[in-house]
Amino acid sequence: MEVKVINKSKHELPAYQSISAAGLDLRANLDEPMILRPMQRTLVPTGLFMELPLGFEAQIRPRSGLAFKYGVTVLNSPGTIDSDYRGEIKILLVNLSDESFTIENGERVAQMVIAKHEQISWKSVKVLEDSERSAGGFGSTGKG
Question: Is 82 annotated as a binding residue?
Answer without folding.
Answer: yes
